[in-house]
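Suppose you are handed a protein chain with no further information: no name, no annotation, nothing but its sequence. What can you learn? This example shows the usual starting point.
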Amino acid sequence: MRGKRTATGAALVAGALAVTGLAFAPTAAAVTPQSATFTANCGIFGGGAATLTATQSGGSATLTLATAITTPLPLAKDSIASTLTMAKAGGGSTVFSGTKNPAMAAGDPVTVGPLTGTVASGDSLDVYGGSLKMVFFGITVTCTASAPQSPGPFVFN
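A reasonable first move is to predict its three-dimensional structure. Written in structure tokens, the prediction is:
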């Protein structure tokens, strides 16, 4: 009988420790929505539909942008210097930057990222009111959004 009580007590202690561990486990940071679309205007370089994809890990976030504009020449991997400025709800902005991009053949849609930046819990960011600057072959291409992103701004937790 004594062995059964010891086993039951050990099981209860193990269960209590597991529940306590869950209660103190760090919560996963998340951004919502995870992707958004907008219409980009890149001046003489064209424009069209663009998609932003966001991820978050604590106070760090990354954004990847796939655009409808196409490259006139082949581009090597990691050859575009990009700066994405996102408008912050309530004023101000947050900047994401980097030189990450896949290799692209002439005529391929331009994709950049992941671009990294710092966010705070509760930040609400929209590409509308911001801009994307890409530099390749010494040429700067600036794109802006013609309207707020859909389904809405990125909200970081």
